[in-house]
DNA sequence: GGGAATAAATAGATCGCGTACAAGAATTAG
DNA sequence: CTAATTCTTGTACGCGATCTATTTATTCCC
């Protein structure tokens, strides 16, 4: 019930890609260069990543599952909005001060363009979907649930962006988050 | 001081593209098919649009300039957040009930995929940038300004999406907008 | 041990977007 | 009429992404 074992790993491709992105920028780096440095064939790349842009958002994708789990673990009798706030704090805790996603701190040297921003936003949208689904499950109006999801993730994105930009000496992400996430939830009547 | 006049027009390409998108979906429609139906060469397409995805967001791009102008026209002594709310209402008024962007109402038959969502999000991000710049100009903290911009545009996106989905019998967009935009601004202390 | 069965890696081809460059066609200014 | 300007078109190419087929490595079972 098990075929050929994986000879390469996602991490090898990530590291090769990160090196090349820092050396020559994102746009000028081809998938073939990445796979050559990682010692695999070009096609193998697509066994590990759906596309080139996905290389940069691995941490963000991981944080989505953290968010999902944190929301699922919320007791049923807690206020939904408070649960969202707590879940975001839990998710933020996973991004320790030293481990900011590379793309957020090095986007200048990588030459990030609109395509990349859009790819990041698509990830953020997935987070919003998670929050929205949770709120709908708690009985909130569909429009309001979606609005809260998008608004709160928008605010959180601002916090993460600023946090990453502030460099290694920054305070924990939670500090930034609370400053902007709480007002949004407050506006929607957090209890 | 005037060279060869334009033989084709942006509108012709938009209409040809809309037809094809509705007939066979977005992904299966090639730029060559669009230009052939419009009676021009493939290269001419790129004189009018930077890319294929831009065909669907013409109205949204236009609404960004409306938003920018509305914010610029706000009196200097009005509360910044109230000015944002008013400017969004003005922008919404331009999207009359009958004229929802085609992509928002027909995205099912067009087979919109992730790429399209991302392109729409990039447009929304541009709106958020406009709001952010306005608030920074009014002296708000950089992080807070960005958070408000992203949050309020997120909420507005939810409203527009729902409004479009509700079909021709829907109420005006302003109704949807106010329901979700006001809470966000309220949370940030709208005066 | 020696096949099936399974799954990963590779090779090769193709499609379509987007860019670049050069040449041609239509217009106005002098 | 010529020159300058601007749109249009042709041609070519790089790269991302998909598809199909083939090879290689591993486990399960007889």
From TrEMBL, chains A, B:
Q: Note the superkingdom of the native organism.
A: Bacteria
By what name is this protein known?
TetR/AcrR family transcriptional regulator
Recorded source organism is Herbiconiux gentiana
Instruction: Report keywords, A-Z.
Output: DNA-binding, Transcription, Transcription regulation
DNA-binding region(s), chain positions: 30-49
Where in the numbering of this chain does the HTH tetR-type domain appear? 7-67
Q: Which InterPro entries does the UniProt record give?
A: Homeodomain-like_sf, HTH-type_TetR-like_transc_reg, HTH_TetR, MftR_C
Signal peptide bounds: none
